[in-house]
């Protein structure tokens, strides 16, 4: 039996709304979610979601939609960014994959160079070496050659690079539609079956 746990790492790039939606969707799809936030992700959560993250006494409810079924909370496992003792830091802990969403250029550079200075870097390093699914959702514009080279190194090492670039051909009507476009593509790569948006070429 394969593991169904998924690691969601949130770093200090713009777009934490994607991370929050992803966590909600994965929990609703009956997945166990291992959540790690970098210190800079805390700054962005405050700016973009108006949410204060307490890294020592994390309250998972701050990351869930207001109408989210709190019955799923036992499947949301929070890990401190410096907790290298966490199970997910080891290759022997089986997962169905990892998503770094959004991924800052700082984290991207650390991963491309094998620097494991926090739990997010370490877990990503593990997913790459174990040849497991790892989806990286970078957010920056424009991009330098250094950042592009880092992206290429990670794709060469087996990562799926899925930039937060929603398409407009499905006629999005709201920010939620744009967010769901990206979450839907992430779920496709994780092989989590969700129907959040229409698909090009299909009736629904
Ligand atoms: C409000 C805010 C928005 C930011 N947006 C981005 C961004 O979109 N992309 C990026 O690469 N860095 C962004 N940064 C800078 C990163 O947070 C910073 O480089 C940090 O060191 C990244 O650390 P981390 O990768 O450990 O999260 C932002 C910072 C703040 C405070």
Describe the model.
- The chain has 204 residues and is of the alpha/beta class.
- It has helices at residues 16-28, 39-49, 105-112, 119-129, 145-156, 175-190; strands at residues 6-10, 33-37, 76-79, 97-103, 134-138, 160-161.
- A six-stranded parallel beta sheet has the order 3-2-1-4-5-6, with helices on both faces.
- Helix 5 links the parallel strand 5 (134-138) and strand 6.
- Helix 1 crosses helix 6 (175-190) and helix 3 crosses helix 5 (145-156).
- Bound molecules: flavin mononucleotide.
Task: Map the helices and strands.
Layout: E1 6-10, H1 16-28, E2 33-37, H2 39-49, E3 76-79, E4 97-103, H3 105-112, H4 119-129, E5 134-138, H5 145-156, E6 160-161, H6 175-190
Parallel strand pairs: 1-2, 1-4, 2-3, 4-5, 5-6
Helix pairs in contact: 1-6, 3-5
The structure holds flavin mononucleotide (FMN).
How are helices and strands ordered from N to C?
EHEHEEHHEHEH
Q: Strand-residue fraction?
A: 5-15%
Distance between the termini: 32 Å
Please name the CATH topology.
Rossmann fold
The total number of structural domains is 1
Molecules bound to protein? flavin mononucleotide
**Text of the CATH class:** Alpha Beta
The helix content, as a percent range, equals 25-40%
Order of strands in the sheet with most strands: 3-2-1-4-5-6
* Second CATH tier, the architecture: 3-Layer(aba) Sandwich
Total number of helices = 6
The gross shape turns out to be globular
Q: Nearest-angstrom radius of gyration? A: 16 Å
CATH homolog superfamily? Flavin prenyltransferase-like
What structural class do the secondary elements suggest?
A: alpha/beta
Uncertain spans: none
Biggest beta-sheet profile: 6 strands, parallel
Write down how many β-strands occur, each being a DSSP E stretch of 2 or more residues: 6
